[in-house]
Structure formats: C-alpha cells, structure tokens
Amino acid sequence: MADIVDLIHAEHRIMSRLLARLERELDIFEKGERPDFDLVRDILDVMLSWPAACHHPKEALLEARLAKVSPEMRKRVGIIEREHLKMGEQLANAQQALDSILMEVEVSRDTFLAMARNLIARIKYHLMMEEEEFLPLARQSLDAKTLEALAREAEAAVAERAECLGDRLQVLLAETDNKAPA
Ligand SMILES: [Fe+2]
Ligand SMILES: [Fe+2]
Fold first, then answer.
1. Which of 10, 66, 158, 177 could form a disulfide with 164 if both were Cys (CB 3.0 to 4.6 A apart)?
2. What span, in angstroms and rounded, lies between the C-alpha atoms of 175 and 75?
3. How many angstroms separate the alpha carbon of residue 34 from the centre of ligand 1?
4. Ligand 2: distance of its center to the CA of 119 in Å?
5. What is the pTM of this model?
6. For residue 10, what are the contacts with CB-CB under 8 A and spacing of at least 6?
7. From the CA of 121, how far away is ligand 2's center (Å)?
8. Ligand closest to CA 135
9. Would you kindly state where each structural domain of the chain is located, as residue ranges?
C-alpha cells in the first residue's frame, strides 16, 4: 500500500500540475490577452482549500512523528506550518485581487500578476523543500511499517472532509488538461 510519503508526493504532483496551468494563464494575461478567469479563480480556490483540509494534516502528522526520532526535525518543527499559513494568506490576497479585477475595481493587472507570480514562487519553493528535505528525511528516519500506519491514520483523519473526496479536484484537473494548449 501507499505510505504517507507516497501520498504526500502524489498530492505535490497534483499541485504542480495546477500551478503549471495557472502559470500558463498568467502568461496569457501578461501578453494583454484575456485568460480563462474562471479557471484561474478555481485553481486559486482549490489551492487554498484542498491542501489546508487534506494535505497539510498529513504533513503535520508526519512532522510530529518525525520530530520524535529526528533531532534535525525537532529544530524545524513549526517551520512547515508557518509556511502553510503564509501561503494561505498569499492565496487569499491573490483571490481578492482577482475579484477586484473581475469587478473592475482599482487593481492593476501588474499588481495581480506580481502577487500571483510571487505566490507561485513561494509554493514551488515550499514543494521543493518538502520533496528534497522533509520527505527524504522521513524515509531515512522511519521504517516502512510506521510510514504505512501513518498513511492509514492520515487518510482516516481527513476522509470525512468534503474537500478531500476529490470530486471537485478531479473536475478541475480534467478541465485543466482539456484546456491545455497543444
Ligand atoms: Fe507543506
Ligand atoms: Fe506539501
């Protein structure tokens, strides 16, 4: 079965797909053309609600378990969580800026683009840090049985949450791929 590192990794790949799609829409906007604003809004929305409900709890569980055995992790406890909060704030700000553009309130295209690009850079850096440091440390420090038990625990903890059922995410991913330029 998939262990908790596999689950987190798979979700990172989904986030990377969504971010890549978002970047393409921003490129369109930057060229002065009209991006698919509905898609941009949906991606920002899902990136705000889905990780908070389904992904970050898995990381918190793994981080707590890892801190028990890894002095390196103990020093870093709280850093990942703080990053999650900052990313959440940036996502909410980008959403607000997008809404202002759509309502034709005074937010310039450049301001929104800068916010969105900044946000994407922050999330990419966070994903890279987790992929290159956090997850390898978990694999090194915890045995297979523990990582599998954590996966079961994490899945059970988020199973009842509507955001984690995946329906909306699957629709969005299908839409993301369908609308992808050749
Ligand atoms: Fe994270
Ligand atoms: Fe993550």
1. 158
2. 41
3. 32
4. 15
5. 0.90
6. 2
7. 14
8. 2
9. 4-178
Complete DSSP assignment for 45-95: HHHHHHIIIIIHHHHHHHHHHHHHH-HHHHHHTTHHHHHHHHHHHHHHHHH
**Cα torsion through 18, 24, 27, 28, rounded to 10:** -120
Average pLDDT over residues 59-77: 88
Measured in Å, residue 140 CA sits from the centre of ligand 1 at 19
Whether the per-residue pLDDT at 182 is higher than 50: the answer is no
pLDDT attached to residue 66:
93
Pick the CATH number of 4-178 from 1.10.8.590, 1.20.120.520, 3.40.190.10, 2.60.40.10: 1.20.120.520
Q: How far apart are CA 127 and CA 120, in angstroms?
A: 10
- Nearest ligand to the CA atom of 12: 2
- CA–CA distance from 145 to each of 1, 91, 150 (Å)? 10, 36, 9
Q: Using CA atoms, how far apart are residues 128 and 152, in angstroms rounded to an integer? A: 25
Q: Please state, in angstroms and rounded to a whole number, the distance separating the CA atoms of residues 138 and 117.
A: 30
Separation of 3 CA from ligand 2 center, angstroms?
Answer: 15
Q: What is the largest CA-CA distance in the chain?
A: 55
